[in-house]
Amino acid sequence: MSRHPEVKWAQRADKVFITVLLPDAKNAKVNLEPDGDFTFSASAGVEDHLYELKLDLFDKVNVEESKINIGVRSIFCVVEKAEKGWWKKLLRGDEKAPHYLKVDWDKWVDEDEDNGLGDLDLGGMDFSKFAGMEGMGGDAMGDDLDDTDDEEVSKPAEENSENPDEHGVKSEAAPSI
């Protein structure tokens, strides 16, 4: 008997993101049909358990434009919709979604918040350009603030203890055993 892997999903107006979470999957096979039939099978685990999945997606998809990436920890699919528009759910039919199907909140964008930047890939962003932000109302790292709470305050009883070292830290006598 086969098992079901955990599946996460999110959408944009033109695509659906489906992530099958199955670490160390072997012989992974993904099939996508234009009518929205999505099937997956692979083996994983020490005992090579068989994992299978069949999803009847809400509407038709564009198989040629869809992309599948089989990684070490998961299988990531970008399924292009045949017609642009928001689906009210991932699966067709009126039955309740299976327990292994969850919303991918890391990728989720509400329909009214989608501004077309869903394809924005931050992986190639040059973060070194942030180094020249000195003109943004103060020092780039905020070093111009007085941090008086970071200074060490000595108690009156400590005034008579041994001299501080070169870092200003007072050493105490080692306890006797």
From TrEMBL:
Pfam families given in the database record: CS
Biased composition (Acidic residues): 141-152
GO terms of biological process kind: chaperone-mediated protein complex assembly; protein folding; response to heat
Cellular localization per UniProt: Cytoplasm; Nucleus
GO CC, alphabetical: cytosol; nucleus; protein folding chaperone complex
Gene3D superfamilies the record matches: 2.60.40.790
Keyword Chaperone: yes
Domain of life of the native organism: Eukaryota
UniProt xrefs under CDD domains: p23_hB-ind1_like (cd06465)
Biased composition (Basic and acidic residues): 153-170
InterPro entries in the cross-refs: CS_dom (IPR007052), HSP20-like_chaperone (IPR008978), p23-like (IPR045250)
Record keywords: Chaperone, Cytoplasm, Nucleus
Residues annotated as domain CS: 2-91
Location of the region described as Disordered in the Swiss-Prot/TrEMBL record: 133-177
GO MF term (any one): Hsp90 protein binding
Family statement: Belongs to the p23/wos2 family.
UniProt-listed PANTHER family: CO-CHAPERONE PROTEIN P23, TELOMERASE-BINDING PROTEIN P23 HSP90 CO-CHAPERONE
Function: Acts as a co-chaperone for HSP90.
Subunit and interaction comment: Interacts with HSP90 in an ATP-dependent manner.
Protein known as: Co-chaperone protein p23
Naturally occurring in which organism (per UniProt): Vitis rotundifolia
